[in-house]
Design goal:
It is a single chain. The protein is α/β, with parallel strands linked by helices and 395 residues long. The chain has 2 domains: 89 residues, no CATH class; 267 residues, Vaccinia Virus protein VP39 (Rossmann fold, 3-Layer(aba) Sandwich), CATH 3.40.50. 29% of the residues lie in helices and 21% in strands. The strands form 3 sheets. Strands 12-10-11-7-6-13-14-5-15 form a 9-stranded mixed β-sheet. Strands 1, 2, 3 and 4 form a 4-stranded antiparallel β-sheet that branches. It has a two-stranded antiparallel ribbon with strand order 8-9. It is globular, with a radius of gyration of 23 Å. The termini are far apart. The structure holds S-adenosylmethionine. The site of S-adenosylmethionine has 18 residues, from helix 4 and strand 14. Its EC number is 2.1.1.-. This is Methyltransferase. It catalyses: a 2'-deoxycytidine in DNA + S-adenosyl-L-methionine = an N(4)-methyl-2'-deoxycytidine in DNA + S-adenosyl-L-homocysteine + H(+). It comes from Desulfonema magnum. Pfam families: N6_N4_Mtase.
C-alpha cells in the first residue's frame, strides 16, 4: 500500500488510489473537451480539505491548473477546479488577468433534438453535451427505508446517487437557467407496534446538495392536493379517533416544488434582452390566469402504469413559467414521460431519461397523443426496438 492509499483508507475516502483520481479527472477533461491537449501531473491527497488534487500540465509540461476531487463523494469540485476558460487561455499562452468584455455575449441556443434515453441518467448525462438544456423539471425516485423495497442500501447512498445526478445536470444546464424539483418528505412506516413511524425530511437534504453543487435557491412553491395525499397512511384516521395531544399528526396534503438556478453573474433580464429570437420571446409570454402566489392547487394524477406520476398540468405550469418556446426541457427521472408530454404540448423540445424499460415502452405506446411531436424524428437511446446507439445527433 502506498502512503496515499493508507491515508485514504484511514479516512474512509471513496477515492482511494492515484489511478481512481486520474480516472475521474480524465472523465472530467473529456466532458470539457480538453482531454486531447491536457496531461496529468501526479495526483496528491489533501487530507486537510478531504480532496484529491490532480495537477494539469500542457503538452510542453507547463503547469496550467488543477482538478480538485472531493475524496468522500468522488465528485469534481467545479468551484475549486481551474476553470475551463482559464485552462484554455493558459494553453494558448495568454495572460488570464483582465478579460476583455465579450461583445457577442448572448444566450446559447441548444441544437439537441427530442431525445428519449433508456438507462441510468448519471451515465446518459455524461454523454449529453455541455450546456445543452434550458430547464430541468423532475421528481426523483423515492428513498424507501425498507431494504426489501429499496434500490439503495442506506439513505446516504441514496443521497450520493442523487448528488451525482444533480452534479451532471449542472453541467448540461445552460447558464443561469432553472432546475425545478418536485419533492416531499418520505414517510417510513413503523415496522412493529413498539416502534413509531418516521418522516425523513428529504427536501432539506436535497437543498444542501443543490447549494453545494453550484445552484442558487430561488423559490419554494407549495403544491396543494385538494383531496389530500396521505390518508392512506392512516395518520388522519388514527388521530381523529383518539384526539390525544402529542399524538397529533397532520395529514400531508402538499408537496414542494423547489426552484433553483444555475449560479451565474447574469441577471434574468439578460436572458430576455439578449434572446436571439424576439418573436419567440413575444410568443412565450405568460398569459392571464397564471399562479400569482406560491401555493398551487392542482389535483394529483394517477396512472395504473406507474405509482408516482405527477399531473401534466403541474409540468405545464413549470414549463410555461421557466422556459421559452423551443427551449430544451430535461427530465432525468422521466417515468411515464409527463414532462415530455407537457414540453411537447407547449412547443418546447424534450430530453427524457428513464431507467425502467417498462416506462420507456409506456412512453412509446402513448407518444402519439402528445401534441407537436413528430415521433419519427425522436432520437431513441438504448431502446431495443429503435436504436442501440448512444447517439446525440444534432439537428
Ligand atoms: C417519481 S418517478 C417520476 C415519475 C414522472 N414524473 C411521471 O410523471 O411519470 C421517478 C422515476 O425515476 C426512475 N429512476 C430511478 N433511478 C433512475 C436513474 N438512475 N436514472 C433514470 N431513471 C431513474 C424510476 O424508474 C421512476 O420511474
Amino acid at each position: 500500500m502506498t502512503k496515499k492509499s493508507i491515508v485514504a483508507e484511514k479516512r474512509n475516502y471513496r477515492v482511494k488510489l492515484v489511478d481512481d483520481a486520474k480516472k475521474i479527472a480524465s472523465e472530467y477533461l473529456k466532458n470539457i473537451e480538453l482531454s486531447k491537449v491536457v496531461r496529468f501531473g501526479l495526483p496528491e491527497i489533501d487530507d486537510r480539505y478531504h480532496c484529491w488534487r490532480v495537477p494539469l500540465v500542457s503538452q510542453n509540461k507547463t503547469n496550467i491548473g488543477e482538478i480538485v476531487i472531493d475524496a468522500f463523494s468522488s465528485l469534481v469540485s467545479e468551484k475549486k477546479t481551474t476553470q475551463k476558460k482559464v485552462l484554455e487561455s493558459r494553453l494558448l499562452g495568454r495572460k488570464t488577468g483582465k478579460r476583455k468584455k465579450r461583445t457577442n455575449d448572448i444566450p446559447k441556443i441548444s441544437n439537441l433534438r427530442n431525445t428519449i434515453g433508456l438507462g441510468d441518467s448519471e451515465a446518459l448525462l455524461t454523454e449529453t453535451p455541455l450546456e445543452s438544456v434550458d430547464l430541468i423539471f423532475t421528481s426523483p425516485p423515492y428513498y424507501n427505508a425498507r431494504p426489501e423495497y429499496s434500490d439503495f442500501i442506506t439513505y446516504e447512498e441514496y443521497l450520493l446517487k442523487m448528488r451525482k445526478i444533480i452534479h451532471q445536470c449542472h453541467r448540461v444546464l445552460n447558464e443561469g437557467r432553472f432546475f425545478v424539483l418536485n419533492i416531499s418528505p418520505v414517510l417510513v412506516r413503523r415496522a412493529s407496534r413498539s416502534e413509531s413511524s418516521k418522516r425523513i425530511a428529504v427536501p432539506f437534504d436535497f437543498h444542501r446538495l443543490f447549494i453545494e453543487e453550484g445552484y442558487e435557491f430561488i423559490d419554494d412553491i407549495i403544491w396543494v392536493k385538494p383531496e389530500g395525499a396521505g390518508w392512506a397512511t392512516g395518520r388522519g384516521r388514527r388521530f381523529s379517533a383518539d384526539r390525544n395531544p402529542l399524538q397529533y399528526k397532520p395529514v400531508p396534503v402538499t408537496e414542494y416544488l423547489l426552484v433553483y438556478r444555475k449560479k451565474t453573474d447574469k441577471l434574468i433580464d439578460w436572458h430576455i434582452r439578449k434572446h436571439p429570437d424576439k418573436e419567440i420571446v413575444r410568443q412565450s409570454k405568460v398569459q392571464d390566469g397564471y399562479e400569482v402566489t406560491n401555493i398551487w392547487k392542482i389535483h394529483p394524477a394517477h396512472n395504473k402504469a406507474h405509482p408516482a406520476v405527477f399531473p401534466v398540468e403541474l409540468a405545464e405550469k413549470v414549463i410555461t413559467y421557466y422556459s421559452f418556446i423551443n427551449d430544451v426541457i430535461l427530465d432525468p427521472f422521466a417515468g411515464t414521460g409527463t414532462v415530455g408530454k407537457a414540453a411537447s404540448n407547449l412547443k418546447r423540445r424534450f430530453v427524457l431519461f428513464e431507467i425502467n424499460s417498462e416506462y420507456i415502452q409506456y412512453i412509446k405506446n402513448n407518444i402519439d397523443k402528445w401534441q407537436n411531436t413528430d415521433v419519427s424524428s425522436i432520437n431513441w437511446i438504448n431502446s431495443e426496438s429503435v436504436s442501440y446507439q448512444l447517439n446525440f445527433n444534432l439537428e
